[in-house]
Amino acid sequence: MTFRLIVRVEAEADLVDAARWYENERPNLGIEFLSEARRVIHNAVANPFLYPAISRRPQAHRALTHRFPYWMFYRIRHGAVIVFAVLHAKRSDRAWQERV
User: Residue 63, SS3?
Assistant: First the structure.
């Protein structure tokens, strides 16, 4: 089965905010962050069950980027991988739970 990708507006804003922060830290670091985020999201779309489910109701999955301390949170629904949050790993679990 081929899954399609849906990135919610909130998750897209998370990506832009993080990329801007990294870009301010060092030129091109924001681009590197976005590249890593894209790799993780691509892996989730290619195999949605690759990353562990962290809740059952509602079901949500979490993938950690390798180089940057960010979690990608997504759901699998109706043939789509829906990315609903991209949050720093030190953020409270409440942050992603409010978005599900």
Answer: strand
Q: What is the CATH number of the domain that holds 21?
A: 3.30.2310.20
Domain holding 31, by residue range, is 4-97
pLDDT tens profile 19-59: 999 999 999 999 999 999 999 999 999 999 999 999 887 88
Q: Count structural domains, the chain.
A: 1
pTM for this one?
0.89
How, if at all, do strands 80-88 and 53-56 pair? unpaired
Structure token digits, residue 67: 């180089």
Q: Could you give the strand order of the β-sheet that contains 59-64, starting from the edge strand earlier in sequence?
A: 4-7, 80-88, 70-77, 59-64, 53-56
Give the separation between CA 95 and CA 84, rounded to whole angstroms: 11
Distances (CA, A) of 41 to 5, 24, 53, 71: 9, 24, 15, 11
